[in-house]
Amino acid sequence: MIRKTIQLNTETISYLTDDELGNIIVLFLHGFGDEAQRALSLFNSKDRIYSIIAPDFPGCGQSSNNVVTPSIEYYCQIISEFVEKTLPNRKIYIVTHSLGTIPGLKTALSNPNIIHIFGVAPLMPRDENPETIALRTKWMLPSTAEEWYESQLRLFCDEDDDWITTPSVKNKILSTPKSFYSERSKRFSKLATQIFDMNLIKQIYSNFYSKQNNFTAFISKKDQYFDFSRAEKYINLYNVSTCELNDSGHAMFYKNTQKIHKYINNFIIKKEGLY
User: Fold this and answer.
1) pLDDT attached to residue 170
2) Which of 105, 245, 249, 275 has CB atoms 3.0–4.6 Å from 157's, for a disulfide?
3) Are residues 6 and 82 in contact, defined by beta-carbon separation less than 8 angstroms?
4) How does strand 114-120 pair with strand 92-97?
5) Which of 90-94, 128-132, 270-274 has the highest mean pLDDT?
6) Is residue 253 part of a domain?
7) Considering only CA atoms, which of 222, 233, 217 is closest in space to residue 95?
8) Quick count: other Cβ atoms within 10 Å of Cβ 275?
9) Is residue 152 in a domain?
10) Distance CA 242, CA 249 (A)
């Protein structure tokens, strides 16, 4: 695995990639305020038959951020250009986490080389109310040390949060400089608002499913960031293919990378006829 950069308009996009890309490629798109290193556990899956390429979105990881407050539309534009320049005419599978699902779906609509999208704890249409929006927005845009810790804790569930509740880890998170999460909250304020713009999210899914259905969602009933009971109506409406991992919270790659990898690996083996 190596890190490279590419210039896309005014942005310098940093990305992780296997030293050499084989014939089967997975494009990994990380979630809200995260970075390409979220894919490290996938990179370390020894028996994978696919190569991985994983960019940092603008404002994340080692990529630049020349728009100050990036938007979903901007991320979609960047990923479309990234694919055109780094993977021209290549057949691609996309693996996303959370927010990264939206650029994944948008790219699939405009690029016929996208074979399938796997959304891990994906951002989906759902029926939120003002109270749940306010609570989750506070987690995404914390303004105090306590809110910052809460935002990290809520990524997990009662089956995988034992490490983050230990006093040493909790104190380390609480001691994070305020400048870090304050600046982060300013940078991602527009994205956080758009995540709860259900008209926007519903339209993206409606556009996608009006033309194709090559999408699988890994979901958990214990995901505290995105309550999938509120998305159930839309899962049924679009007949979304799902795989439940109910022993994880929103941070599914923390505990369940191997289950996710095995599912994707086997799917690709069947799809590519590699029996």
Assistant:
1) 96
2) 249
3) yes
4) parallel
5) 90-94
6) yes
7) 217
8) 5
9) no
10) 16
- The CATH number of whichever domain residue 256 belongs to comes to 3.40.50.1820
Q: Supply the pLDDT for residue 256.
A: 96
According to DSSP, the β-strands at 114-120 and 51-55 are: unpaired
Predicted TM-score (pTM) of the model is: 0.96
First to last CA, the chain: 27
How much is the pLDDT for 253? 95
Domain count, the chain: 1
239-251 burial, b if ≥16 CB within 10 A, otherwise e? Answer: ebeeeebeebbbb
Task: Provide the token pair at 40.
Answer: 């490290």
Q: Is residue 105 part of a domain?
A: yes
Whether 174 is in a domain gets the answer: no
82: left (phi over 0), alpha (psi -120 to 50) or beta: alpha
Domain coverage including residue 247: 2-127+197-271
Q: What is the β-pairing status of strands 241-244 and 215-219? A: parallel
Span 66-88, mean pLDDT? 97
Confidence of residue 161 (pLDDT cuts 50, 70, 90): very high
Strands 51-55 and 25-29: what pairing? parallel
| Distance (Å) of CA 24 to CA 67, 97, 108, 125 | 33, 20, 16, 30
The whole-number average pLDDT for the span 236-245 is: 96
- Mean pLDDT value across residues 85-89: 95
Mean pLDDT over the full length of the chain: 95
Cβ distance 36 to 14 under 8 Å?
yes
What's the pLDDT tens digit per position in 12-71?
999 999 999 999 999 999 999 999 999 999 999 989 999 999 999 999 999 999 999 999
Query: CA-CA distances (angstroms) from residue 184 to 209, 238, 272?
Result: 33, 34, 41
